[in-house]
Design a protein that fits this description.
Strand content: under 5%
Radius of gyration: 17 Å
Helix content: over 70%
Structural class: mainly alpha
Number of strands: 0
Number of helices: 3
Shape: elongated
Largest sheet: none
Length: about 100
């Protein structure tokens, strides 16, 4: 029973991380599209939901190469990757915002 709870918890956490990744990267796509693409190219605007749909498409076709780590490094590496997935879109958005200020 404990293994079932652990497996269910891991599945729920992976699902929440995926949803967060899609929504945050969708927001990043939405903002950068309006800041950098629309002023330069005569393309139609996209909404936030369309940007999220684009990110869902990109995430579905993107492949990841599994890394082989020693067991003693796996937990630290997994925590670092998880924290970078949470913080990275906002760091990129901040850098893009600074670039937008100077353009």
């Amino acid at each position: 029973m404990d293994e079932l709870k652990k497996g269910l918890g891991e599945f729920l956490l992976a699902t929440l991380k995926s949803i967060y990744g899609i929504l945050s990267c969708g927001f990043l796509t939405f903002k950068t599209y309006h800041w950098f693409i629309t002023p330069v190219f005569p393309l139609p605007d996209i909404s936030y939901t369309q940007a999220v749909g684009i990110m869902m498409f990109v995430f579905s076709i993107r492949t990841s190469i599994p890394r082989k780590l020693k067991p003693e490094y796996y937990k630290d590496s997994e925590d670092m990757i998880t924290s970078m997935h949470i913080v990275a879109p906002w760091i990129i958005l901040g850098i893009c915002w600074i670039v937008k200020l100077f353009i």
